[in-house]
Amino acid sequence: MQIRKVHMLLVILMAGIIVYFGIPHIIQTSCQLAGQADLDETFSVLPRMSYPQPFVDKPQRTDVLLMSPWLAPIVWEGTFNRDILNAQYRQKNLIVGVATFAVKKYVRFTEGFLSSANKFFLSGHRVNFYIFTDHPEKIPLMKLAPEKRLFIIPIQNYSRWQDISMNRMDIISSHIHSHWRYEVDYLYSMDIDVQLFEHIGVEIIDTLVGTISSWQYTKPRENNSYERRPESQATIPSGEGDFYYAASFYGGSVSEVYKLTTACFKGVTEDRANGIEAKWHEESHLNKYLLYHKPTRLLSPEYYWDEELIRPHIVKVKRLSSVRKDLKEVRF
Q1: 196-235: pLDDT as tens digits
Q2: pTM of this prediction?
Q3: What is the pLDDT of residues 295-310, one digit of tens each?
Q4: 3-class secondary structure for 166-215?
Q5: Is 283 among the residues known to form the active site?
Q6: Catalytic residue among 227, 256, 282, 283
């Protein structure tokens, strides 16, 4: 009798273990398959030029260490975890693109951006830097790491800095459609007037990535700088919204960034037709999009810190930050 009881307890225990570990795996796999189907509807799966994998490659969540954005620096600093992530990433032979804009007087920030990004951004991994500029002759020629490449892309000279800001989404979307979907697996948009101070690695790689604004992350949701006017396509109704995201650093898979930039520029275009300019330009449209298309990875403000702010104790590391400047001097 005692042996039967022990056997029954073991059976119950094993059943509990299977339910606990098996069902989430089944649910996760189903969600991943559904997500891939959504991507395939937007982009036909095309082979990258000379690369073995299709450019639409939705990352399996087991390939990337899942972590709280606030705990990411603590976990990432472990040598063992870093080595595992880097090894897994290299096996995929992936390429990351970085799009940035050096126009008008902002061209002066190019050298600081490139030298720091060459050292700290995905060190040891393949990265293509795409710099859009109206002064290609002023972009400094720099020797980059062997795995990094620089592409200088001339663009027109806009009269207002606001027009430069709001047309970035259209330019990125157009180049994804014409070139980048064949060239890179993941794409990130970064401001040119920033510098990197600490390593930014493969912990940022995910399907859709947003960075919590250093200006807004400590404020209550109702105090965030969302566009509230209902006439704008970027409007977020009062009482809605979770995080406020910085347009200075966002990205993800090429297909997801294409969806994001296309949708945001559509909102910008409709606002223009109605004589409206969103409160924070393309950043307002970015926040509207990410409210209803949740990022799969959140980055804490240490991944973009504004130097006008005093850094609180909770932000232990400043990995990327803006460059101190006189906005009136560089924008006009």
Answers
A1: 999 999 999 999 999 999 887 666 666 668 999 999 999 9
A2: 0.74
A3: 999 999 999 998 888 7
A4: HHHHHHHHHHHHHHHHHHCCEEEEECCCEEECCCECHHHCCCEEEEECCC
A5: yes
A6: 283
